[in-house]
Design a protein that fits this description.
Helices cover 23% and strands 31% of the residues. With 288 residues, it is of the alpha+beta class. It has two domains: 157 residues, Aminopeptidase (3-Layer(aba) Sandwich); 121 residues, 3-Layer(aba) Sandwich (Aminopeptidase). The mean pLDDT is 95.
């Protein structure tokens, strides 16, 4: 018999089964995230269990966003997976209906990213495709890079970054707030060597650099509020920048529709239509 469960994060057996299915589906485990104390109540799996094993899942991620100077309460659905032996049983449909019933009227909108094989599935639940937009530009700063790098391989360094998030006065036009665990999910697993900090200005940047091209995922600063001030600290080494978030400035950068292979944004809720209307981007480190 199938049973729908949630809030089992601290159940070692069920968590292990969840991770097994995630590894089989995505090649990804959440166990280190849990053991490092970073899996918070903001990430909530809704799962179908049979004979003690997780066989299907849709996770709800609370992704509050700062939009038009106000914190808006959004939900992102992710980690959508069904064990191959249990497909075509309507399990994801059941989970989606439960999530919709539980959160209806309790958030400003819901969104998700879908691969090309399921583009016809989510409109059945009231979702519609939305574009999102990417800002980029050429750089002409001079001098040497003033940033240091801090490897994110210890709890002490994770805490330093987490504290910097709390102190930050730098704000993009569509920033995720109050969810450091999701950002640290990326930093501790995939971006350990991609955190830069500048002590004099208390500025922290999560970025990937290749041949003078910067992909900036996040900026946190205790003193700086303008993107150009931060970019100047990279000196002449950086010649081009692409933003994984929406910078605060509306001028000075090229804004174009963002396309990612096998990844389509679906939204539900009128407030999320501002993504297209104001040419915003879902922050890259808020994907789950």
């Amino acid at each position: 018999m199938y049973q729908l469960i949630t809030d089992y994060r601290d159940d070692a057996s069920l968590r292990h089964s969840f991770n097994q299915l995630a590894e089989k589906t995505f090649g990804l485990s959440f166990e280190d995230w849990y053991q490092n104390g970073l899996w918070s109540d903001s990430y909530r799996p809704f799962s179908i269990v049979r004979d003690g094993e997780i066989v299907a899942n849709v996770s709800v991620n609370k992704t509050d966003m700062l939009l038009e100077t106000k914190v808006r309460h959004f939900l992102q659905l992710g980690t959508v997976m069904t064990d191959e032996a249990h497909r075509r049983q309507g399990l994801i449909r059941e989970l989606m209906a439960r999530i919709d019933a539980e959160y209806s009227g309790k958030c400003h909108g819901i969104y998700l990213f879908a691969n090309d094989s399921v583009l016809d599935f989510y409109p059945r639940f009231g979702f519609e495709i939305s574009p999102e937009y990417e800002s980029s530009g050429q750089l002409s700063s001079s001098g040497t890079c003033q940033f240091e790098k801090l490897t994110m391989n210890t709890p002490a360094n994770w805490q330093l970054l987490k504290d910097a998030m709390g102190r930050s006065i730098f704000r993009g036009r569509f920033d995720m707030v109050d969810n450091p665990g999701l950002i640290l999910f990326y930093v501790t697993k995939f971006l350990q060597e991609n955190v830069y900090f500048h002590r004099p200005t208390d500025t922290w940047v999560i970025a990937q650099e290749e041949n003078g091209r910067l992909l900036i995922h996040n900026i946190f600063s205790g003193t700086l509020t303008e993107t150009g001030q931060v970019l100047n600290l990279f000196g002449s080494a950086a010649r081009e920048v692409v933003f994984g978030f929406t910078p605060p400035e509306t001028e000075g950068y090229t804004v174009a529709e963002h396309h990612e292979e096998d990844c389509t944004l679906f939204i539900k809720g009128d407030l999320l239509k501002l993504i297209a209307g104001q040419k915003l981007r879902i922050p890259s480190l808020s994907h789950a």
